[in-house]
Amino acid sequence: KAVLYMRRHNEERSVLRSVEFTTSQGAAVKKTVTREVGPGKKYAQVSQAVLAANNGDTILVYPGTYPEMINVYSDNITIKAVKPGTVKFSAEFMFDYSIKASNVKGLTIDGIDFVGGRYSASAKMISLFRSGNIKITNCRFHAGRKRKMGNLHISGRYIKGIEVRNCVFDTGFH
Predict the structure, then answer these.
(1) Strands annotated E in the chain
(2) 72, 86, 112, 136: which has the highest count of C-beta atoms within 10 A?
């Protein structure tokens, strides 16, 4: 769609009117991108690829352990392990979270092992706030470092739709 502003030549005052029309060529289609993370790939860290991602992109993560805090800002992002169970997001040295999504519409996390979570009131593996259409599949949430008590695996406030499917929680679902 485009908007054309015009003024009639017989009007004394400059009055702008708008007319909407659609071109015969149709709307441009945005191409989604797959961003690869891992040794020898364009991105060494998941957070770098997520920061560069646009709406609809896929972050494909190769085997390894990634000790980082990942903030998701774009909608409809997929973070996926090349092979489920070979990618570990470690929260061992993190104070708060492994993945945080705020005001995001659409996030898929697939095939990730979450490890090293600490037990504290503020620590969690996945933190969600004012987000929706969240899908967490084929993931494993390992017990906290002391294994006596588990960390808070998924924390969410004001969530509109979350699906957790085919996941394993070592200490139960928190």
Answers:
(1) 2-6, 17-21, 34-37, 58-61, 64-66, 70-72, 77-81, 87-90, 99-102, 105-110, 112-115, 124-129, 132-137, 140-141, 152-157, 160-165, 168-169
(2) 112
**pLDDT for the residue 61:** 98
The whole-number pLDDT of residue 11 equals: 52
What is the number of other CB atoms lying within 10 angstroms of the CB of residue 9? 5
- Please give the model's pTM, rounded to 2 decimal places: 0.77
Residue that the structure tokens 């620590």 belong to: 123
What's the pLDDT at 135? 96
DSSP string, 47-63: HHHHHH--TT-EEEE-S
Burial class (CB in 10 A: 0-12, 13-18, 19+), 6: exposed
- Residue 50: pLDDT over 50: yes
Is there a contact between 95 and 68 (Cβ–Cβ < 8 Å)?
no
